[in-house]
Amino acid sequence: MIIIDGKKAASEIRIELKSEIDNLKLQGKSVPGLVAILVGNNPASESYVRGKSKACEEIGMRGKIEKLPSDIPERELLAVIQKYNLDDDYNGILVQLPLPKHINEEKIIEAVSPHKDVDGFHPVNVGNLVIGKDTFLPCTPAGIQELLVRYNIPLKGKHVVVVGRSNIVGKPISNILLQKKENANAVVTICHSASNDISYFTKQADIVIAAIGQPNFIKADMVKDGVVVIDVGINRIEDSSAAKGYKIVGDVDFDEVSKKSSYITPVPGGVGPMTIAMLLKNTFKAYLIQE
After folding, report:
1. Which CATH superfamily is domain 28-112 in?
2. CA 54 to CA 140: how far, in whole Å?
3. How many whole angstroms separate alpha carbon 200 and alpha carbon 221?
4. Residues designated as active site
5. pTM for this structure?
6. Domain 139-272 adopts which CATH fold?
7. What are the pLDDT digits (tens) for 166-222?
């Protein structure tokens, strides 16, 4: 059994990008810029945005946080987005979700220029993904594919069972892996809350991708020997023995499922670190297109 190390893979991607950006600087060219728009004081959102900004700085990219009050009117937020749509200094724009209840998230996502939508959430980019055109892929699913490729895990003709159908992970990773392309071309099954017997499908899977948001949902008796397991879940469960009073676990019962797996991602340290790495990669891609 091999543990898929997302921290190591993410670090490799950052080193590769830093080298590219260092070359731009040597040529006297501008460097890519990413602006993160943060509305309100959600501590988790603030932490995520700081992490993204810090990651930009570490590889020589410009990272900016545009912090806005939680009671900002929707029209003013739309005006801020439009300002950055027109600002050539920033190649990527991300609006940190969730947004306050008085703001229509769908409208905000659609306000970001598709050419600067480095989260890959704009309907234009979602549509391009579905029909197989080159586009900005959502960061977590793109990170999953990148891990599979970097660990030389074959995908062509393999049965991938995705557990979960969210717009952020389940649907896009399914679309990414079924494309008739290199590093894809898999046979994809999606299970969700209306699936009668999820284990019927997961037992057949060569690769299981768990993104259902339920701690330790995938058990050892639900998978076959030699399975590849990608755990996207991040669940906080009470644990009095832990310093913080809780521990983070995935959607997979790691201790038991790992005994049957050929490859498995841990939580934390698996898929999570890849998300920011792929955001940086998308921002660099946006820069190259816009230049």
Report:
1. Leucine Dehydrogenase, chain A, domain 1 (3.40.50.10860)
2. 19
3. 10
4. 52, 96, 119
5. 0.95
6. Rossmann fold (3.40.50)
7. 999 999 999 999 999 999 999 999 999 999 999 999 999 999 999 999 999 999 999
